[in-house]
Specification:
mainly alpha; 3 helices
Length: about 100
């Protein structure tokens, strides 16, 4: 995985045909936004399932602690994904604005 080669290839593609690059990048951004939604949905479902398990079952303290830690992890992951989704939407808006020019 040569990251510099990837960056150079993308810059070259952008300089050769800006419109085609932006259209292709918009497709990737749309897929990323869909992935953010699915990921947050899964995190939310697992979080709710763990909350129900913790409220209904009388678990040993070790399992209660583990489930609580997983719930905290999921909550933080949802927040982080929300920031990623917000900035991805801003990037998509800038791509759409550039395509309209």
């Amino acid at each position: 995985m040569n990251n510099q080669a990837n960056v150079t290839r993308k810059i070259d593609h952008f300089e050769e045909d800006t419109i085609a690059y932006l259209q292709a990048d918009k497709i990737v951004v749309d897929k990323n936004l869909n992935s953010f939604f699915i990921l947050k949905l899964i995190y939310g479902i697992v979080f709710m399932a763990l909350a129900i398990v913790l409220s209904k079952l009388n678990l040993k303290p070790i399992y209660f602690g583990i489930f609580t830690a997983v719930m905290i992890h999921l909550a933080v992951a949802i927040v982080i994904d929300t920031f990623g989704e917000r900035y991805t939407k801003a990037y998509k808006a800038s791509i759409e604005q550039a395509l309209q020019l």
